[in-house]
Structure formats: C-alpha cells, structure tokens
Design brief:
The chain is of the alpha+beta class. It has helices at about 5-70, 75-95, 105-125, 130-215, 235-280, 290-320, 335-350, 370-390, 445-455; strands spanning about 330, 355-360, 365-370, 395-400, 405-410, 460-465, 470-480. Strand 6 and strand 7 (about 470-480) form a beta hairpin.
C-alpha cells in the first residue's frame, strides 16, 4: 500500500471514529426529544384540559344556580351550553388514555342534562320546591360525581407526569454518560490510530534521515532498517539509498586508489627533479649566476612543497584504505606531554610566542593510544596555531580528564577563522581565507587527517573561532580505545 493510500485511510478512520460520539449523542438527543414531546403533547396538554374542565364544571354549577332562581330562557340556554362544553371536553379527555374510564363522567353528564331540564320545567311552572329537590338530589350530586372523576384523573395525571419527567431525566443522564464514554473511547481510538500512523511514517523518515546523515559524514557502511522490498514510497527510497551508497562507496574506493597510485608514481620524478636542482645548487654542472641560483632555490622550495603534499595524500589514502588501522600502546601521559612541550618550545622561541602546556593533577597515568598518530594530530594542531599566531601572541595546550576521557584543547591568539567557513575546515583540500596571514602555506589535508585519526580512536574533534581573536581546537579521546586489544593479547591490531 502506498504512503498516500495509508495516510488517506488513516485520516478516514480517525474521522469515522470521531463521528461515532456525535452519532450516539444525536440518537440520545432524539430519544430525549421524543420523551419531551410526549410530555408536552400528552401530560402537559391533559393538565391544561383538566384545568379547563374544572372551570367548565364551575360554570355549569353557576348556570344551574341561575336556572334554579331565575328559571328563564337565558339561564336554560347557559346551562345547556355548559353541559355541551363538558361533553366536548370529556371526548377530548378520552384521547389521552389516562387509565380512567370517561364513561362515569359521560353518565354523570347525561344525568346532569336530564336533571337540569326537569329542574327548569318545574321552576318555570312555579314548582320551586320540586325544582329545589331535583337540584339537591340529582343535579348537584351529578356535578359532584364529575368533580370526583376529575380528581381521580388529576391524580393519575400527576403520577404519569412524574414518571414521564423521570424518563426525561434518565434519558438526559444516559445521553450525557453515553456521550462522555463515547468521546473518551473515540479519543483513545483516534489517539492510537494517530500514533500508529505517525510511527508508520516517522520511523522510516527518521531512518532515512540517519542514513543521509551517515552519508554526509562519509559513513557509507550504514545499513537502513527499511526493506527495499516494501511496496510503498519508503521501499523505493530505501532501494535508491542503497544504490546511492554503493555507488558512492565505489567512487570513494576508486578515488582513494587513484590518489594512492598517482601520489606514489609522482614521488620518483619529483625526487629526481629535486636531486638535479640540488646538483645545480652545488655547481656540479657549472657555476650559476645569482639570478639562476635564486630561481633554483624557488624551484627547490616548490618541489619540497609538492613532496609534502604527496606525502599527505599517500598518508590519508593509506589510512582510509586500511580502515583506520591503529597500533595503540600504553603511553605515560605526563611524560608524553613533557616531550611535546619540549618539541615546540624551540619554535615558540623563534617566533617570540608564549607557549604553555597545562594539565590537571588527576590526569590518568597511562593512556592507550597510537602514539605516532596522536603525535601527528597534535603536531598538526600546534603547527597551525603557531603558523597563524603573530609575534608576541600565545599558544596554550590544556589537558583535562572527563569521565574516562581526556580532553585536549589547543588555543591560540591568531587571526581566527570566518564562522561561515568553520564547518568545512575538516574537509579535504579545504583552506580558509586566513592563509594570507600564515607564516607558511598549507595543503588542506592536515585537519582532514587529524579528524580521521581522532575518530579512529573513538574520539571527537571540534573547533571554535573568532576572527581577530584566535581559534580553539578541542580533541576528546577515550583513555583506552574501545574494541582494540593490546598487542600483548597476541591478536592483530585492527583485525
């Protein structure tokens, strides 16, 4: 599956997971809405109807009283309308199915209708006592029966309303709990999907980044932990990386081989040239004029410079070809530093430069290094420090212990290095713009060789500089080289 498809599916899955709480919440709200609608359309509407019914009963009672005392046509009409209104309300009340039969109310209404008709006839005929008796024995009991039925219905309605409100409250609580639980589960699933998607992308990207960093640091042996057989973009990138690393490795091998062969082949003709120039200087082939002697001296100087360059090229090519092979042995560190100080004290005196070697009292007594190679590193750093430091300046060599390591700092008060050029000073053949201030010209290989030697010891080398104020090179070396056994172990060094 391609990376684009994986991303699309992952995002779609996250979107679906996040939609689940919304769907569940909507369903819960729909149930709550149904319960609320029933409460509004049934219990609340029935409650309003009962209130109106009670008012209509009072109206009927008032109309009956008026009928008894006034016994005119208006009172009869009013009473009839009140009874009709009660009958209509009874029919409406039956639609709410409140669990109480409306037959009793309808029977009471029929009795009320008949009693009020007779009551009117007797009252209108002047039989007031009979009309009063009908009101007492039939009309008012019918109205009382209707009130009793309404009270029963009202009690049932209160119970139903209480249950419906409880249902709404339960539905609200269920919706809230379901929404929270669904959100937590969805958020957890979305987080897990996001982490899986992130790891599926970030791991190969990180691995490719490490591989490219290794290539940029000339480490072509790094193997990606990504299978080139993968069918996605990372598989194709891994295959391209492996192909690139193989081609670069072959190019490096050919380059090193070419430099080694070319340097070796150049040594003989240059030595011949130098030999003949020296013979000319000794007047073997006749007396030289002052101008010829000056030109010959210049040629010898340039030939010697070329010889040093070839020696450097041979040295670094052999070092790379051997895989950084070292021959370490025990070195008495304080004695080594004393000898190093003696070696450069003469150069410091010649150039009127203060040279100081400082080291801590708690330095390890013995270190396990390749003394010749470390001599080459420190010799190169100190030579550069003296070369770029003007007269009356200073060069310091500070040595301190640091957790099973030895830190060696070479500081000078020279011309410094441009900050933009500082990251490239360990590249082969690179020379900073400060060469004009140097006492002698360099080849651009010394620091490259120094880095190779230090890293072969398992150490690091770095530089800090400020134009016009000086440069500090810091070399950190383990007290004992890891992974290399002593010669006394009867094992070939560097094997």
């Amino acid at each position: 599956m391609s990376l684009r498809a994986r991303l699309g599916l992952g995002l779609l899955a996250i979107a679906i997971v996040l939609l689940i709480p919304l769907v569940l919440a909507l369903r819960s709200l729909e149930e709550l809405q149904t319960t609320t609608r029933l409460l509004r359309d049934r219990e609340f509407a029935a409650s309003l109807l009962l209130n109106s019914f009670s008012g209509a009963v009072e109206d009927a009672r008032g109309a009956e009283n008026a009928l008894l005392f006034l016994h005119d046509g208006a009172s009869k009409k009013r009473t009839s309308l009140a009874v009709d209104r009660l009958a209509s309300m009874t029919d409406s009340l039956a639609t709410y199915h409140l669990g109480v039969s409306t037959t009793k109310i309808q029977s009471s209404l029929a009795e009320l209708r008949a009693a009020t008709a007779e009551e009117y006839d007797d009252a209108a005929a002047g039989r007031g006592v009979v009309a009063e008796m009908i009101s007492t024995q039939r009309t008012r009991p019918a109205l009382a029966a209707i009130d009793s039925s309404l009270n029963s219905i009202s009690a049932t309605l209160r119970v139903n309303t209480k249950e419906r409100v409880a249902q709404a409250a339960d539905a609200t609580g269920d919706a809230e709990r379901l929404g929270i639980a669904a959100f937590i589960v969805a958020a957890a699933l979305a987080f897990i999907l996001g982490v899986l998607l992130f790891r599926a992308i970030s791991r190969p990207v990180y691995e490719l980044e490490r591989g490219m960093k290794a290539v940029s640091e000339s480490d072509l042996s790094y193997e990606l932990r990504i299978s080139p057989k993968r069918t996605d973009e990372f598989g194709r990138l891994a295959a391209s990386y492996n192909s690139m690393a193989a081609q670069l490795g072959e190019l490096n091998r050919l380059r090193a081989e070419f430099i080694s062969v070319a340097s070796h082949e150049l040594k003989t003709p240059i030595n011949v040239i130098i030999g003949y120039l020296e013979l000319l200087q000794e007047n073997i082939y006749g007396e030289l004029t002052p101008k010829q002697r000056e030109i010959t001296q210049t040629l010898i100087k340039q030939a010697n410079t070329l010889t040093r360059l070839i020696k450097r090229l041979l040295d670094i090519s052999r070092f790379e070809a051997s895989g950084g092979r070292l021959e370490p042995r025990d070195i008495e560190l304080r004695k080594y530093l004393t000898n190093l100080e003696s070696s450069f004290s003469v150069l410091a005196s010649q150039r009127n430069i203060a040279f100081n070697v400082r080291h801590s009292e708690n330095l390890p007594e013995v270190v396990y290094w390749d003394e010749d190679r470390i001599n080459e590193v420190l010799g190169n750093l100190l030579s550069n420090a003296f070369k770029f430091t003007p007269r009356d300046g200073s060069v310091d060599l500070d040595v301190t212990p640091d957790d099973h390591h030895v830190v060696i700092a070479v500081r000078d008060t020279g011309v410094g290095i441009d900050p933009e050029q500082l990251p490239r000073i360990f590249d082969k053949f690179f020379q900073a713009d400060n060469q004009a201030q140097a006492a002698t010209k360099g080849t651009g290989l010394g620091l490259a060789i120094a880095r190779e030697i230090v890293e072969a010891h398992g150490g690091t080398i770095s530089a800090e500089s400020e134009l016009g104020k000086g440069t500090t090179f810091t070399v950190t070396l383990p007290v004992k080289i890891a992974g290399i056994r002593r010669k006394s172990d009867h094992v070939g060094v560097g094997a």
